[in-house]
Amino acid sequence: MEKDTFTKKLGKHISEIREEKELTQVQLAKLCKKHKQNINRLEAGAMNPSAYYLYELSKALKVPMSNLLDF
Predict the structure, then answer these.
(1) What secondary structure letter does DSSP report for 35?
(2) For the chain, N or C: smaller number of CB within 10 Å?
(3) pTM confidence score
(4) Residue 11 CB-density burial (10 A; 0-12 exposed, 13-18 middle, 19+ buried)
């Protein structure tokens, strides 16, 4: 899978998890101490997050980190 395809699928999946948890991008950003713009870029597939970034998101979303990559 190409990097661009991967980051877009990852972002879409994270967006779906966030919406299932009934969180806005602003709320998620506050929970993981990130800027809302970075959450927006991530969900748009315009960002290639580090493993630690994904770890922080998984804690904020209260899901196992492996769930973020299960798409």
Answers:
(1) -
(2) N
(3) 0.92
(4) buried
